[in-house]
Design a protein that fits this description.
Strand order of the largest sheet: 1-2
Largest sheet: 2 strands, antiparallel
Number of domains: 1
Helix content: 55-70%
Order of helices and strands: HEEHHH
Radius of gyration: 23 Å
Mean pLDDT: 88
Length: 120
């Protein structure tokens, strides 16, 4: 999201929508390699990683999650489209950028008008 300040109500709504979509995209479609072990060999550290899997796949493999929760997640996964999710995220990011730019332009114009008044 960058280093801008998003403080208007409209910007916050867009941000919340982005985060909701990003949660789905990250947890269902972004694989992660987990570190299994680290072993020091002299001055070097040898790291061993697990096979890359999504958080969704790891939940399905977990014995600590109920079968009902796994079934609910599978149903949710079946209706998701990663390409569509990514497109929506990008579209919302562009909208957020436009909102922030318009807000900054208004602030610049207000300062510019005040400066013209002072310089007269």
């Amino acid at each position: 999201m960058g280093y801008r300040r998003y403080d208007t109500e409209q910007e916050v709504k867009v941000l919340n929508t982005i985060y909701a979509l990003l949660r789905l995209y990250t947890n269902f479609f972004q694989p992660v390699m987990k570190l299994i072990s680290k072993e020091r060999v002299g001055s070097k550290v040898k790291k061993t990683y697990d096979q890359a899997r999504t958080p969704f796949q790891r939940v399905l493999e977990s014995p600590f999650v109920s079968q009902q929760a796994k079934d609910d997640l599978k149903e949710q996964y079946e209706v998701l489209n990663p390409v569509q999710l990514k497109r929506e995220i990008i579209k919302l990011q562009d909208k957020l950028d436009a909102l922030a730019r318009s807000k900054n332009n208004r602030k610049w114009e207000e300062r510019h008008v005040n400066l013209e008044y002072i310089l007269r």
